[in-house]
């Protein structure tokens, strides 16, 4: 496993092309966003003729991580690269890495994006005020700590009565 601190922020032209190909891979559990918007695609570098994609799973037990890595490998191969996937687990992924565009796509898809930063004690241990992605009301209630996936909680808006998932702050 690669150390994230070894990753370089600058990319060669080939690495930029490889990044563009890998970045388009949708998340299999939340297909409205791609792996780059979620922040799980950390980098792509050209090393010894291989396009090395560095991927950080949302959590170590994520059941989608192998599907994501395989999809990135296929995308890189289809773009003409010899791919290699490196799983990066340190530092661990955080919802702070979801891009602004990714947050908007989640909201438009009907999933409330994370509210607080991962370093917020309220986000981790307190009650979070979650706005309904349909009508924007904060008059919502948590129905279940777990929604359609372990990284989401299930809520209901008491204003418009719509159920929705909330992408938990991690």
From TrEMBL:
Q: Where is the MIP18 family-like domain?
A: 23-78
What InterPro entries does the record point to?
Answer: Fe-S_Maturation_MIP18, FSCA_dom_sf, MIP18-like, PaaD-like, Zn_ribbon_PaaD
Its domain of life reads Bacteria
* Residue ranges occupied by any PaaD zinc beta ribbon domain in the UniProt entry: 124-168
- Specify one Pfam family: FeS_assembly_P
NCBIfam families noted in UniProt:
PA_CoA_Oxy4
> What is the protein name stated in its UniProt record?
Phenylacetate-CoA oxygenase subunit PaaJ
């Amino acid at each position: 496993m690669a150390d994230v601190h070894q990753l370089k922020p600058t990319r060669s032209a080939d690495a930029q092309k490889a990044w563009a190909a890998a970045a388009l891979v949708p998340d299999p559990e939340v297909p409205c966003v791609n792996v780059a918007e979620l922040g799980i695609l950390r980098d792509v570098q050209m090393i010894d003729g291989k396009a090395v994609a560095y991927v950080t799973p949302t959590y170590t037990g994520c059941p989608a991580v192998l599907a994501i890595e395989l999809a990135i490998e296929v995308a890189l191969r289809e773009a003409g690269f010899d791919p290699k996937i490196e799983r990066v687990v340190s530092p661990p992924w955080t919802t702070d890495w979801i891009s602004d565009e990714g947050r908007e796509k989640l909201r438009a898809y009907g999933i409330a994006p994370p509210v607080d930063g991962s370093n917020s004690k309220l986000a981790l241990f307190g009650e979070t005020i979650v706005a309904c992605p349909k009508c924007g009301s904060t008059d919502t209630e948590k129905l279940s700590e777990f929604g359609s996936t372990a990284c989401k909680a299930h809520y209901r808006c008491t204003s418009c009565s719509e159920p929705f998932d909330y992408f938990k702050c991690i």
